[in-house]
Amino acid sequence: MKIAIVGAGVIGVTTAYELALDGHTVTVFEQRSATAEEASFATGGLLAPAVLDPWSAPGTARTPAVLGRHATLHLGRSISLAELSWLRRWRRAARASARTGAPLPPLVALERLARYSHARLQHLTESLDLVFERSTGTLLLLRTPQDAQGLAPVLKALRDAGTAVRELDADAARTIEPGLSPSLPLSGALHLPEGMAGNCRQFALLLRQAAQQRGTQFEFGTRIARLTSAPAGVQLEGESTPRPFDAVVLCAGVQSAALLQPLGPRLPLVALYGSSISAPLREELHAPLAAVVDVQTQTTMARLGQRVRVSGGAELGRSTPQAHPQTLGTLYRVLGECFPGGISHASGLQMWRGARPMLPDGPPMVGQSAVPGLWLNLGHGASGWALACGSARALADQIAGKTPDIDLEGLGAQRF
Ligand SMILES: Cc1cc2nc3c(=O)[nH]c(=O)nc-3n(C[C@H](O)[C@H](O)[C@H](O)COP(=O)(O)OP(=O)(O)OC[C@H]3O[C@@H](n4cnc5c(N)ncnc54)[C@H](O)[C@@H]3O)c2cc1C
Predict the structure, then answer these.
(1) What's the Cα-to-Cα distance from 148 to each of 44, 106, 265, rounded to whole Å?
(2) Under a CB-based contact definition with an 8 Å cutoff, are residues 165 and 190 in contact?
(3) Distance (Å, rounded) from C-alpha 75 to C-alpha 291?
(4) Any domain includes 311
(5) Nearest protein Cα to ligand 1, atom 35
(6) Atom 41 in ligand 1: which residue has the minimum CA distance?
(7) Is the dihedral of CA 88, 254, 390, 402 positive or negative?
(8) Does residue 198 line the site of ligand 1, with CB under 6 A?
(9) Which of 27, 171, 284, 383 could cross-link with 50 by S-S, CB 3.0 to 4.6 Å?
(10) 127-141, 143-157, 383-397: segment of lowest average pLDDT
(11) Of ligand 1's atoms, which has the minimum distance to the CA of residue 352?
């Protein structure tokens, strides 16, 4: 088939690779001048288990507070009705999950996709000999015993799926991450030896090359002005007639809702902004060796080669390009509290702000839309890097008319 993909973030690139692997003729349209320039640029790096990110799905962390000193979500002045509606649904689901301590079905669906995705990523990494910055093992820091309470649903989902989760005291946590500050008060920690972190952008660039070697065309600097149906196609900005394709796959991250709107009902997709700071190592012995999550502040720290990346923050209804000063303050503070002296502030600091494409229940949409010929692979929220390889393979199987290797219940593209 002749297939168009809109978007060359990590989701578009992995989709292009899988479709090219199946023998399709693939063209990727990307408005930016390169791969992974938007949400996939400087992600926190958490790869496995994907559901450890506090914003993966309702029930992976405490119900988000929007007021007070412990607010985990900052609301902007220009918040829209759609964003408020998203927030209401998310908080209601998080409270329901916290009441029972059990994972809701969307969290279970997300965990299943994440596990499949991790296996697919490992297969691609080995079979294509991809070399990118990565580390093994994830440590969750529990500053107080209450920190563990909010994690009950996600830990149950992980344990039910057979993931090893070790409960540690503070001394044992410091053996795993010797750079942890001796003055950081810790009531304990959880260690997931099979956890993994990695550099999303590097992986996307490598997989783009692999897709190109299989004949995929990338048209950078090309903005899709609208999608068309009957026949399926894309109309490029500056062109007067649409280009027809046998199938179009929408992987446009947070901009997917605007492209879809003229063709059907509004997608309940919102942008949840966050930031990351990447800094060169100053003193190896004082820096994290792998991924570390500070549960209380919902901040992740990861070792990526000769750099440390700290990431977090959640801002809704705030469309300025600059990072929220409070978010940046928290990232610096948490890194300083956990790994003082680990990074160099002198030069080479990279600050980044990106938008997580969030649906109200957590999991992405991976499948056929109501519009003939239009397929969706979008809404990967806080775990797009971790979910990309599995979502792409499952979508390619559906386009080929094959039954995917995983159960896609809860990931349907027409579920809202
Ligand atoms: C602070 C932060 C930390 C994160 N940490 C993690 C993490 O630790 N682990 C994890 O798994 N995930 C993490 N994520 C989430 C992850 O970054 C996203 O889920 C993922 O990058 C989404 O990928 P995407 O390809 O859907 O979107 P994008 O990377 O945004 O790609 C969409 C592409 O579509 C293009 N596009 C849009 N509209 C058009 C158009 N009209 N024409 C042409 N091109 C178009 C855009 O230019 C863009 O390149 C984090 C996100 C943030 C913000």
Answers:
(1) 21, 21, 39
(2) yes
(3) 28
(4) yes
(5) 7
(6) 224
(7) positive
(8) no
(9) 383
(10) 143-157
(11) 1
| Among 114, 102, 95, CA closest to 56 | 114
Cα(410) to centroid of ligand 1, in Å? 21
Q: Give a yes or no: residue 279 inside a domain.
A: yes
Query: Of all helices (H) and strands (E), which one includes residue 224?
Result: strand 224-228
> What is the distance in A from the centroid of ligand 1 to the CA of 379?
9
86 C-alpha to ligand 1 centroid (Å): 19
Residue 20 lies in a domain: no
**What is the tally of structural domains in the chain?**
1
Distance (Å) from CA 128 to ligand 1 centroid: 23
Distance in Å from the first CA to the final CA of the chain: 29
Phi, psi of 376 (to 5 degrees): -120, 135
Nearest CA to ligand 1 atom 9: 46
> Which pLDDT value is given to residue 324?
80
Q: For residue range 235-284, what is the model confidence (pLDDT) as tens digits?
A: 999 999 999 999 999 999 999 999 999 998 789 999 999 999 999 999 88
Distance 289 CA to ligand 1 centre (A): 26
The answer as to whether 70 is a domain residue is yes
Q: What is the DSSP string of 282-337?
A: S-GGGS-SSEEEETTTTEEEEEETTEEEEEEEEEES---SSPPHHHHHHHHHHHHH
How far is the C-alpha of 9 from the C-alpha of 16, rounded, in Å? 11
Give 381-399 pLDDT, tens digit per residue.
999 999 999 999 999 999 9
What is the extent of the structural domain holding 161?
A: 48-103+134-196+270-358
Indicate which CATH number applies to the domain containing 305: 3.30.9.10
Ligand 1 centroid to Cα of residue 148, in Å, is 29
The type of residue at 14 is T
